[in-house]
Predict the 3D structure of the following.
Amino acid sequence: MRTSNRTIERCLTVGTVVLILALWYVLTIGGIFSETIIPSMKSVGQAFVKIVSDGYKGSSLWMHLATSMKRLLIAYGLVVITAVPLGLLSGYNSKVCAILEPVIEFYRPLPPLAYYTILVLWMGIGESSKLCLLYLAGFAPVYISCVSGVIRIKSDYINGAYTLGANKRQIFFHVIFPAALTDIFTGLRTALGVEYTTLVAAEMVAATAGIGWLVLDASNYLRSDIVFMGVILMGITGVLLDKLIRVIENHVVHWKGKN
């Protein structure tokens, strides 16, 4: 029964992709919209082949992609090693939460471009300001998910561990951390998406390479074929990175969804 449902779900997924591609083809083949507004699949494919062979503004496509991935993954790694422990600690200790929450709740709703100018003033136009912007964008979702994951843990679990003689350290690592893992991975997946959407903003200032910069630069010259190609490439890499996190989650939180 479960195998049958998975087959149906995969067919629905493939069908959705095919429907979108067919709609794109119909809208462009009939000349309803100009190439500047919606480029044809052929134009986007040609742009991809040309940039793969000749590069864009002095750098190969893979160099642009690697530059963006480096920025994204460095910031993401910093988020993982800081936001997860701080979020768990804040959920476990109300005093720590009282210190950190006002700062996070203040900057979390702000658009990235609103404080990017401040980061540039403080840190310059180099890589530091870009990494800091991506880091701040990804920190809040992970932190909030970790806090929520700890708060949702039933007090019976903690009291039961105390009854069995566990100390605070054992409770944290053997009760709280495993119970919050599902929320932690939800935050990690959300943070990855938020950081990726912030990538273009991070590459707006004094960048000469990066897939986000490529899309932004091409839009200045109304090269919608290159813009579409860059957006599609970003979407594919984003899906692959999300799939990687889900694979890790399925191995780490192997009890998820099981009763």
